[in-house]
Amino acid sequence: MEIPGPGPEEITVTDDSPASYEAAVERLEEIIDRLDSGQAGLRETLDLCKEGKRLVDYCAGELDAVGEGLKELNLDDLAARLDSSAGAGA
Question: How many domains does the chain have?
Answer without folding.
Answer: 1
